[in-house]
Structures are given as structure tokens and as C-alpha cells.
Amino acid sequence: MQQVNCELLNDPFEIGGQKLRSRLFTGTGKFSSHELVPQIIEASGTQVVTMALRRLDWRNPQENILNYIPKGITLLPNTSGARTAEEAIRIARLAKAAGCGNWIKIEVIQDQRYLLPDNPETLIAAEQLVKEGFVVLPYMSPDLGTARRLESVGAAAVMPLGAPIGSNRGLQTRELIRILIEEISLPIIVDAGIGRPSEAAEALEMGAAAVLVNTAIATADQPLEMAHAFRLAVEAGRSAYLAGLGARRDQAEASSPLTGFLREE
Amino acid sequence: MFFDEFKSWQKELTHYSFEQVSQGDVERALGHERLDFMDFLALLSPAAKLYLEPMAQKAHRLTLQNFGKSILLFTPLYLANFCSNQCVYCSYNIKNKILRRKLSLAEVEVEGKAIAEKGLQHLLLLTGESRQASSPEYIADCTRILRPYFASLGIEVYPLETQEYRELYAAGIDTLTIYQEVYDEDIYASVHLAGPKRIHRYRLEAPERACEAGFSGVTIGALLGLGEWRKEAFFTGLHASYLQKTYPDVEIVVSAPRMRPHAGSYKPQYPITDAELVQILLAYRLFMPRGGITLSTRESAPMRDALLPLGITKLSAGSLTSVGGYAESTETGSAQFEVSDERSVEEVVAMLRSKGYQPVFCDWVNLRDRRGA
Amino acid sequence: MNIMINGEKAELRDTISLQRWVEEQNIPHTTVIIEYNGEIIPEERWGYVELKQGDQLEILKFVGGG
Ligand code: SF4
């Protein structure tokens, strides 16, 4: 029994051929200063960091965020600002040309009110970028059909949202994410919406491979402490998942026995 | 491919002992909302025998939640009983001296009409496994004739090529039933003495070929009694869950046929008690809360009634396992096995109603070209 | 001579290579990406690109983001 269990327990978390220990991805937006970024990375234990690409204010160029990201951290540029697949593809190519490696978080948003991702465009961009050799991590609304198609075109992971970007409202899409975890064999990384460490822990307990957290850390009163809190939460959630949550008792009301007929044998 | 998964689990199970499963393992499995393969194995273990009642309660609740109190009724029509195989457990075995028959196309229509008059809309067409006597073209011809009378037509015939499944699909077949009989390859070889059926893998992969061909439903199962039932049930579940995952648009159904008396001397090596059958059905339901489960007339009427609330979603009714016989005018050929539940369609309907179930005659209409022949 | 930089019009006194222009503006060149008329120009090639009337430049850099 033990033997089989160990062999089948498929824990290693791998994306794009890279083994990752930390299941906490962090974003670098909304921090009060660039100097905080390396400290946050350290406090969170994160190994994957996201950033965005923007036009340079060329009359007044400032320091680039990349200078603050320690060596050995995997860069995950996003395509934020893209409204179509075409724009996302263009941004991805630019990011790669900038020497950012070949990981890309596809983010295509047309809706500017709720900032919800556009799944059909995301799928088109994913298919193309996989062909171009990118390690593709698409941000998406948790929809099973889309996730299946993303899997079949070769995405490296799927990043469903827990709640709208920056809303800190937690796992509003819990049921849908649970279905993705059940049905999709790619790592599921919950992106957007996670506002508290307990929510990150819950996502990992459910079997999500990782979470991406930005706003909740960046806007905390003490971002470093919060980064550390998320690190602990993610580790706790993952350990709980591996340990196998205890049985939640079925509150079966005293109904008439269904197997009584067997006693007559 | 399922074959690879099958092989790798076969290897895993060489280190596995059902005897080592503890009651705690069973309780844990029962507590899980989604069962993994280890949970499924636990529910098939001897330890789970003590938990049949809580398993039944949960299975019942899950079935109600996913299917409501409704049961789809279907009926089989044997088109022919010629067979080129030597399955030691079957009356149609080429060595058995039985009355062989194949319905003419005119008889098929008469039989089809007689069945449709009882209100049944889902029909399963069966043949013995002889490509020569009942060729794919013959099956397609029968399909075209029956098409106008039924909402959905399935086949339970010898395994076919993907292209042949496509052609039958085009003719109007939409579901496939094919039992692996026994997943264990050694036992498989020992009970299939001769004929094309000897190729285990070709049969194992037939469901995938039908899914590729566009079929909307596939029913699989192991013939209980031939192999060690715990493993056989596990592989059936593994197979079904593989198909569910790979072909999410296809309805996957499992069946748990127990060996029945037949014209031959073979006795099941691993006979299944009623309690064991119940354990298997419950494990299927708990492992696959949304999968269909069908129960054939191989089981007796009281047994079928008792099993009903445990997770059954489909029932054959008014079944004859002889070739023809629904219409009074048709001469019949010998039966494949003895039907235990000999109740008529009306009696089954009345039984379902009395238990608060809704008998469903049609849950899906195949709308592709219903003009028929 | 007018060119477009990041969607804005900009005046250049005379022809100049992309390389020189970047240096003159004090743009930290290790970390920007330049698209010249829709084509990404790797840094090694900046010296070979002569800016001329009507050219379009997109200059991008990485910023914080989630
Ligand atoms: S089980 Fe099928 S293949 Fe075997 S003898 Fe019977 S009809 Fe023929």
C-alpha cells in the first residue's frame, strides 16, 4: 500500500521543464518603491516573479524593474495592456527580445470595467506562442472548455482567476477552479483575487499547484511581513493537501437501510 | 492511449494487496468528495465489506444529486447468433450446437416495430461475433431500417475499425456497448480459446475507436466471474475514467454483468456473491459520481429492484436474448444466456413508478438524418 | 525631421543612428526594447539603423506588474 502510494504521488511541480520548490508566484506591481522588490522576493521565498511591459517615458527614463530582481529568479512577463490575441503575441515577442527568457503570462483583457480576461483571444494567443517556443501560462476565466483547449494546444499551466484583478475578494470562483483541478492535468495556478493568506492556503488545500499574489502583498501595511505570511500559508495549504484532508462526515440522515436485502442471503 | 495506462497500473498492482487496506483507508475514501485511484481500490477491498451501508447511502445520495429519480429503459435486439469465437462461458460459442439464425432485413423491421410499439425508444442491436455472418454492411442495413422507429440505436457487436465505426455512425448508430469480458490477459487467453476475439488489445481499444468515430455514448464492463473481481472492477473503473477524461463529450457507462447459466459446462472461477456485486456497483458510483451504470436482465427481478437505488441509471426491460422473438411471427434462434428478470416492459414501468422513479423511454434523440431506409 | 516615438511626435535635428540617439537621451540601454517601424531591433543592431523622416519608434521597458 505504502509503496504504491509513494510511486503514484506525483508531487514535483514543474513548469516548462523547470522544477519549482515555491508555490507562491509574486507580482511586482503597486509597490511603493523598487527597493522593496528584492526584499519581498526573499521574504516570500518566491521563485517566479511577474512584471509588465510599458512604453518608456523616454524624456525621463527611470530605472528598470529588472535591475531589482535577483539572479536565479524566473521572470514571467505578462502581456497586460493587450486587448487582442495579436497584441498579446506582439508583447510576448518584445518581452522575449528583451532577454526576459521564454516564459509568458498571457493576459488579454478587453473589458475595462471588471478587467476580466478574454478567453477566446487568450486561446488564440496561447496556440501561436506555444508554436513560437514560449512557455505559456494563460490567465483566464475558469472555464473548463477553454482550459481543455489550452491544454491541448500546449500551454504549460492554466491560471484561473479567483476574483477580479486587484479585488482581494478571495476564491469567488472556487467551484469552477475545483473542476479545473479535477479535470485538467496541467498545473492550476490561481491568479488574481487572493486577498488573504488563508485564501492562498485554501487554494493549495484544494489541489491548486500554486498561487500568484501581488496586490495583497503590495498594499498591506507591512508588505514584507505579509509576503512571509503568504509563504507560510502556501506551505501549510500544500502540506494539508498532501496529507489528505480528513474525512468530512456525511450527515446521512437515518434513512432506511439500502443494503438490508443482503442479510437474507 | 488507455493501453499504456492499463499496463502501468497492471505493474503497480503487482505490489498492491487489497488485504492491507485498513478500515481507516475505507473511511477516508468515503469522506472524500472526489475519489482518487487509491480510494477506489480501498472501496473494492475486503475492509470495505463492513461499510456497505454507508457506501450505499452515499451512492444513493450522489445518484439522486446527479441523475434524479429517473431510469432510462432500453431493450436489446439480437440480430444474429452466428459466432466465430470459442468463449468458454457463452452459448454462442462456435462449438455449441445451437439453433443459429440471422434475421432478414424484413424480419428486422417487423421486430423493430413490435419493440417500438411497447414505447421503447432506445434499442441495442446485438450479434454474435461473426464478421462473415453479420458483416458491418449488414449491421448498417439493419440500422437504416430501424432508424425511423427509434430515438437512439446502439450496437453490441465484435470490435470494429475506427472507419467502420464511422460508417455505422453515419448509418445512425450512436452508442457502443463492448465488454472487455476480463482485463487480466492470462485469464483472457484461457477463456477465449479460438477466434479473432483472442486479441485482448484490439478489444480493449475498441471504445477509444468508437469515441474517435463520434459516438455519443460508450458502455464498458468486465464479465464478473471470469477474473479476480476486485482487480477486474478496478480496471473497469480505470478504463471508464480514462474515457471520461479523454472524451469529455461522450457519455461513459459501466455495467456489471454477472455470469449467467448458459448452454455449456463452464462454471465461473470467481463466482460473485450478491454482497460482492453490491460492493462493486457502489464503488463504481462513488468513484464516478456522474457516470452511467446499467443493469441487465441477467439479474433476478428482486435483485434488480434492490440494486436500483444504489446508483443504477439504465435498465434493460422486456429483454429477449434470443434472435428475434419480439414479434409473434418471427421464428427465434437460441438465446445467449438466460434472462432472470422476465417481467414485461409494463411490469418494469409499474415497479419503477411504485418506487417513486420515473421511467424514461427517451433521454436523447439522435437527430442526424432520421429518414431511414 | 519628424519621427514618432511612443505615439508622440518628436523633432530630430539631423540624421542620427538609433544607437547615438539612445545615448544622447541617457536611456539605460540594457533594459529597454526598441521596436523600429514595427520590427524589434536587438541592441547590437542599433548602430546600423539611421533614423529618418516618418520613422516610428516604440521604446518599452519592464515595470512592476502582476
Ligand atoms: S461471448 Fe460473444 S464472442 Fe464469445 S462466443 Fe459468445 S457471442 Fe461469440
Provide structural commentary.
The complex is a heterotrimer of chains A (265), B (373) and C (66). With 265 residues, chain A is α/β, with parallel strands linked by helices. Chain A has helices spanning 2-8, 36-44, 85-97, 119-131, 144-153, 174-183, 197-206, 215-218, 223-243; strands at residues 13-15, 18-20, 24-27, 48-55, 74-77, 103-106, 135-140, 159-160, 189-191, 210-213. In chain A, helix 4 links the parallel strand 6 and strand 7 (135-140). In chain A, helix 3 packs parallel to helix 4 (119-131) and helix 7 (197-206) packs parallel to helix 9 (223-243). Chain A is globular and about 85 Å long. Chain B has one domain (69-360): Aldolase class I (TIM Barrel, Alpha-Beta Barrel). In chain B, strands 1-2-3-4-5-6-7-8 form an eight-stranded parallel β-barrel, surrounded by five helices. In chain B, helix 4 (52-67) crosses helix 12 (274-287). The model of chain B has no long low-confidence stretch (mean pLDDT 91). By secondary structure, chain C is mostly beta strands. Chain C has one helix at residues 18-24, and strands at residues 2-5, 8-11, 16-17, 32-36, 39-41, 50-51, 56-64. In chain C, the strands form two sheets. A five-stranded mixed beta sheet of chain C has the order 2-1-7-4-5, with no helix packed on it. A two-stranded antiparallel sheet of chain C has the order 3-6. In chain C, 21% of the residues are buried. Chains in contact: A-B, A-C. Chains A and C meet through strand 4 and helix 3 of A and strand 4 and strand 7 of C. The complex binds iron/sulfur cluster. Residues 83, 85, 87, 90, 92-93, 128-129, 197 of chain B line the site of iron/sulfur cluster.
